[in-house]
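Database export, one record per block. Field names are fixed; values are copied verbatim from the stored entry.
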Amino acid sequence: MPSTLTGLIIFVLLLLPGFVFQRRRARDRPAAEETALQEGLTILFSGLLLDGIGLAAVGGMWAVLPGRAVDVSRFVLTPSAYLAAHPARVLGWAAAVLLVAIVTGYLVAGRRVQALVRRAARRATSREPHASAWWLLFEEHPPQFPVHVGCYLTDGAYLSGRLHSYSRVGKESGDRELTLRDKITYREPGEGASTELLRNVGAVSISARSIQFLTVTYLAPPDKQAAEQEKPEVADS
């Protein structure tokens, strides 16, 4: 661990990309119960890897701007003297490396990139060790596919609509919730197959404790739906 305030600041900044990556990744994945050591190692190693990527990316600019680049050999041999002589240059390039590392970590941890990584590695979604049942259902296809959910409730009622959000808690618990939006349909208990569109209702929250079972339908992406609607109808001869 660093023993000076300057060393501590540098150490924290080096780990910042790893922290951003870990927090962004946790938004779209099942929440695993990790110890402080496991979480710290994840931030440490991912942060160092992202810092290396940022350094490599910014290093490619040194050939383009040689007059304004950092002289790596002089900086390594005499860091204090070089920093004192060129503080703005060193801090500017260090900020560029850090910015590239943070942006890369945020983008790599996104849902679309993670889905591509899973498919490239031929990993099925069902192999997620901490995934809940509905996480597996909702994440079966890439995120551009809208998800329509039908909830059969424990009292015999029925609710359906487009998935808006859901709890990422990995532990199966009745305290979890999911929310539906857009056209919300509802059927009273014992009403058979008839459903009613809830007017002036934009979204609804449902507790997992109230759900008996649910159905999931993947819809075509919005651009494909629009293309289907714009197709001209061919008249029968």
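Remark 1: The CA atoms of residues 150 and 215 lie 5 Å apart.
Remark 2: Confidence is low (pLDDT under 50) at residues 122-126.
End of record.
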